Amino acid sequence: MTVLPDEEAKDRAATLRNRARLSANKNLLFWYRELYRDQFKDFPNPATLAILEVGSGTSPLKQFLPNVITSDVLDLDYLDLVFDSHDIDKLDAIRDESLDVITLTNVLHHLKSPIAFLNRAANKLKSGGEVIATEPFFSVLSILIFKHLHHEAVDLRIAEPELENLHGPLASANIALPWLIFYQRRDWLERLRENYDLHTLSFRPFSALSYMMTGGISRKLPIPGLFYRVMFPIDLALSRYLPRLCASFFTLILTRR
Q1: pTM over 0.90
Q2: What share of the chain is helix, strand, coil (3-state, %, to 5)?
Q3: Which of 71, 149, 211, 255 is the most buried (most CB within 10 A)?
Q4: Residues 83-93: pLDDT tens digits?
Q5: What is the CA angle 212-39-194, rounded to 5?
Q6: Domains recognised in the chain with CATH numbers
Q7: d(CA 33, CA 31)
Q8: What distance in Å separates the CA atoms of residue 48 and residue 120, rounded to the nearest whole number?
Q9: Taking Cα atoms as reference points, which of 238, 224, 207, 214 lies closest to residue 37?
Q10: 252 has which bridge partners?
Q11: How far apart are CA 221 and CA 215, in angstroms?
């Protein structure tokens, strides 16, 4: 994604604000901590893995897994790498077939061509390495929230799995993109078969209303931390047992051939 100077400055300032807001929101940090635990729960010791995070601008993952290599398209002084994710196959800083995991949280729906990115990213994964990505899930409940109460675009009628209009890394988005690719359009998913074992593709719903109850990045709701932590596992269980009714996010795991 080509970033114009004015757009980069605007998005950089917004990213720094969002990072500060997230750090100050204890319930939101708890939500992310539980998400990361769930993302890496199948690994006995994630601290020993070679992990690249794509889209680390706001992400707090490195607070919980210090061995993670952080990256973003925006030039931020706390990142390990700065590059356009669509050029990941050309990235000399990461050797081909050297990574155990590439992880992204709420990033795929910001990419111009998420399928192209995933196919190029496969070059950096070891055989059996994984892409772990968490994205919005469209249930009866969440689609109302995402379409009417969320600031990012929702377009369920796209003809191709790409973003048409680009306005910078943060402003460019269609939060329906990953859900369409992995749940609705098998023909789009098949474009990943050459590089990934689609027979082992897995999905896990993650949370119903617990993210919204934190206030998210834009605001902080006055919910006591103790109540939030007691409520969270109930919310998670509801998303797992009744995903089509109330799940708001899902984690997908793609395994490199």
Answers
A1: yes
A2: 45, 15, 40
A3: 71
A4: 999 999 999 99
A5: 115
A6: 5-255 (3.40.50.150)
A7: 5
A8: 24
A9: 207
A10: 133, 203
A11: 5
